[in-house]
């Protein structure tokens, strides 16, 4: 995995974290919660050479932003002044944080730090992040994951049509209603409204028991959907494996994988047909590329979870690249929001991973 950015290299100076809460254009109601705004932590990593690396993570709750920021700042103190070398730094920080446990918000903090390190290297090298990782800039096909939460069949069908903007050829539908009949009613309404060429993924957000997952999974197999995402507890690999064996509808899991070893354990258990790591939980860019190697060795298609700016670059360098999960959450703070073209995220020749925030917008949505 390459790490050199320039003949002289870069040296870490400091890091600055800014918590913001941005409004969602589409309210996201899932079986777990209703989300109307997204708390994000923006990270800017400064080097002695004047190069800035940027990243961000979705914090899930407002209360998560500040402790994640504190851990990012702590990580920076451990390696301040050293040459920017993400793989070596990741290994060192894993050891340093081992006693508090590199999981949860600690994993997210180290991932955010790692992403900013890689961004700085790519910016210094004058190349897109995907090029630094051995890939090539190219359009990455995306599915629209904005909205389509729990709502009436008519509302879901109407919103699904709206989500085809930018030539989208796939959307994600959240399920987990009180009854199978309600799940089917919404799924059929959305499927009937969209062209046959548009794929529909369904996500239960871990809402079901094993028995109910088999019941609903079997019913959905004939409804024209592309995958069944997180039907049961994400860490119940044995249960996921039983469901995957019983269904011909592909089972998708992975957004909660805690580092590459979790992905490996899931594949060894044959817990799924598809994987979709979250870059903030898998270990940043370093962890993602390690996970991508595992997925390739097992011949498993790999998609992303949230944070499309950096995820698009990672997928462009992923041998078993499948789908980019698109959300427009950073449009509220972006200097120039990315536009989907022909259903794809356009990974172009811009150096780094493309993070560029508008200072006035950031100030507007900053959390106090």
Helix and strand arrangement:
Blueprint: E1 12-29, E2 34-47, E3 52-58, H1 62-79, H2 86-96, H3 104-125, H4 129-132, E4 139-144, H5 153-162, E5 170-174, H6 180-193, E6 199-203, H7 210-220, E7 228-229, H8 237-246, E8 251-253, H9 260-268, E9 274-275, H10 279-282, H11 284-298, H12 308-316, E10 324-326, E11 344-346, H13 359-365
Parallel strand pairs: 4-10, 5-6, 6-7, 7-8, 8-9
Antiparallel strand pairs: 1-2, 2-3, 4-11
Major sheet characteristics: 5 strands, parallel
Order of helices and strands: EEEHHHHEHEHEHEHEHEHHHEEH
Separation of termini? 39 Å
| Rg (C-alpha, Å) | 20 Å
Integer average pLDDT: 96
The class by helix and strand makeup works out as alpha/beta
Counted by DSSP, the helix tally is 13
Give the tally of β-strands.
Answer: 11
Shape: globular
Percent helix range: 25-40%
Beta-strand percentage range: 15-25%
Q: Which runs of at least 5 residues are low in confidence (pLDDT < 50)?
A: 2-7
Strand order of the largest sheet: 5-6-7-8-9
Characteristics of this structure?
368 residues, alpha/beta, five-stranded parallel β-sheet, three-stranded antiparallel β-sheet, 13 helices, 11 strands, disordered N terminus
Structure explained in plain terms:
This protein is an alpha/beta fold. It has 13 helices and eleven strands. The strands form three sheets. Strands 5-6-7-8-9 form a five-stranded parallel beta sheet, with helices on one face. A three-stranded antiparallel beta sheet has the order 1-2-3. Helix 2 packs antiparallel against helix 3, helix 3 packs across helix 11 and helix 6 packs parallel to helix 7. The longest helix is centred in the N-terminal third of the chain and has 22 residues. The radius of gyration is 20 Å and the shape is globular. 51% of the residues are buried. The N terminus is likely disordered.
């Amino acid at each position: 995995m390459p790490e050199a950015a320039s003949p002289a290299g870069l040296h870490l100076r400091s890091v600055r974290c800014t918590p913001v809460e941005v409004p969602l254009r589409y309210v996201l109601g899932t079986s777990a919660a209703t989300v109307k705004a997204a708390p994000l932590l923006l990270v800017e990593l400064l080097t002695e050479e004047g190069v800035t690396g940027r990243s961000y993570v979705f914090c899930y709750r407002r209360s998560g932003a500040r402790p994640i920021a504190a851990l990012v700042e702590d990580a920076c103190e451990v390696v301040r002044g050293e040459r920017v070398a993400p793989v070596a730094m990741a290994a060192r920080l894993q050891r340093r944080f081992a006693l508090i446990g590199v999981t949860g918000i600690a994993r997210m903090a180290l991932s955010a730090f790692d992403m900013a390190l890689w961004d700085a290297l790519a910016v210094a090298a004058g190349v897109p992040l995907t090029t630094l990782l051995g890939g090539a800039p190219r359009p990455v096909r995306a599915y629209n994951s904005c909205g389509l939460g729990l709502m009436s069949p008519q509302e879901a069908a109407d919103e699904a049509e709206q989500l085809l903007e930018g030539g989208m050829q796939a959307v994600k539908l959240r399920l987990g209603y009180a009854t199978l009949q309600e799940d089917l009613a919404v799924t059929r309404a959305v499927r009937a409204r969209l062209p046959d060429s548009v794929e529909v993924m369904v996500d239960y957000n871990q809402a079901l028991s094993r028995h109910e997952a088999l019941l609903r999974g079997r019913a959905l197999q004939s409804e024209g959907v592309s995958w069944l995402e997180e039907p049961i507890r994400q860490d119940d690999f044995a249960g996921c494996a039983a469901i995957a064996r019983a269904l011909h509808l592909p089972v998708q899991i992975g957004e909660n994988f805690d580092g590459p070893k979790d992905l490996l354990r899931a594949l060894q258990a044959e817990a799924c047909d598809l994987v979709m790591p979250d870059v903030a939980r898998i270990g940043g860019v370093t962890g993602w590329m390690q996970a991508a190697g595992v997925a390739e060795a097992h011949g498993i298609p790999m998609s992303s979870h949230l944070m499309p700016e950096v995820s698009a670059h990672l997928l462009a360098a992923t041998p078993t690249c499948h789908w980019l999960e698109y959300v427009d959450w950073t449009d509220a703070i972006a200097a120039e929001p990315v536009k989907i073209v022909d259903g794809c995220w356009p990974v172009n020749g811009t150096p780094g991973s493309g993070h560029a925030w508008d200072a006035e917008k950031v100030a507007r949505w900053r959390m106090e």
